[in-house]
Amino acid sequence: MATHFKHFINGRWETGVTLGVSENPSDLSDIVGEFARADAAQTESAIRAAVDAREAWGSSTPQRRFEVLDFVGSELLARKEELGTLLAREEGKTLPEAIGEAARAGMIFKFFAGEALRIPGERLASVRPGVDVEVTREPLGVVALITPWNFPLAIPAWKIAPALAYGNTVVFKPAELVPGCGWALAEILSRAGLPAGAFNLVLGSGRRVGQTLVESPLVDAISFTGSVTVGEAILAAASARRAKVQLEMGGKNPLVVLADAPLERAAEHAVQGAFYSTGQRCTASSRLIVEAPVFDRFAELMRQRTRALVVGHALERGTQIGPVVSREQLEQDLSYVAIGRHEGAEWLAGGEALERPTRGHYISPALFVAQPKQRIAREEVFGPLACLIRADDYEHALALANDTPFGLCAGICTDSLAKATHFKRHAQAGMVMVNLPTAGVDPHVPFGGRKASSHGPREQGRHAAEFYTTVKTAYTATG
Ligand code: NAP
Ligand code: MG
What we know:
single chain, alpha/beta, Aldehyde Dehydrogenase, Chain A, domain 2, 2 domains, binds NADP nicotinamide-adenine-dinucleotide phosphate, binds magnesium ion, globular
């Protein structure tokens, strides 16, 4: 019998109004589980549970919050192989990547366990005699967390952990493609010692569950990661009722390769950044901007390395690139390959649907030489498709890197300290990488972008407090 992933509402497991099925994208004959799907009324009951738990959790001690989050972090770390296997099976990233993600989720809970003990505040002298001023941070209340499928443990972790650390209560809606991972996290949280209603999991579609959360006047804040289209709709709806909103959205991240870079190493970073996790990372290196003197040599290195990548079942040893998450996403990837060919981009490798011993959503990583204005060089594909773009020199490369509506991450490969330093200062992105792939970030420092990639305060690290708390200034007469 398939596992049944249920909602967790007000401290109890609940079945849904309808049932959905979670598939393994590496093997469509393998059903990961059935999952509950909520309607608006069931979602509203979770919101009310979170409202009712506000007082109990909002007034909990730092020590209690530390213990809850530390418990979750320890369990995620101790069970990283098992949870990584579930993740690889449900989402399709390779097992080593998935285990790494489970561990990272654990580290994030551990980090915010510590932060719960360090909630910042200030005490200042007043400009008036006989008065003290205190600046403290308080919880927002009920926060709705809406997450995508591509990091189904880590992204929920980097929202749930700070939300709880700073005393908020939570309604969490994972993407419908990954209910098993959302349920696994909730299952650990259900045993962590939280009061009933402080953490709720509601499974179901964005249109039903997501929209109900966004429109509810009882939800004080929304943290969303996903596509630009959905993010913009959430921002419009939530700001109309003055809810606090944080959005992390797409990317079209440049990796600049200068003529003085060690080319083999740069190609390794480019392949890693562009194609690992099947290119389904918002920080993927999808634009490889290469200085003219080394362009042909680098393109040839990339062509060879891209063709050599092993595409296969996510749980199979030796697989480097797992399947695409869903049929819909595979069709989108293939359609961009067709767009690239139609626009006259020069095809170098891949972009074909593949058959494997098990039926799944397989595609060979695609590499093109593109012109900067072509669609495949401007729009986020969110799959294993990368474009090589020729730059005359460093200044041209920097201008191309910044010529995008997005601004999540930007990377450069160079041996020149002067150019690396200049790039760090002038890249219009929230994150910059020097001699590293654009994807792959630490769990204890801010994450987020500029322009169309993000809205609101950064996630992760100590900066998470800016979103998950509200500031109070209190004046007290001392005499
Ligand atoms: P998506 O389609 O925007 O969905 C994200 C979440 O929003 C899902 O849980 C989805 O629910 C929900 N949703 C959909 N419509 C909604 C609505 N009308 N109201 C409220 N919620 C709604 O994104 P995705 O396809 O899952 O993920 C891919 C995108 O995420 C890419 O664009 C990628 O760049 C971005 N991403 C960004 C970051 C970052 O930090 N910058 C990280 C990872 C991914 P259902 O899908 O379950 O219906
Ligand atoms: Mg989607």
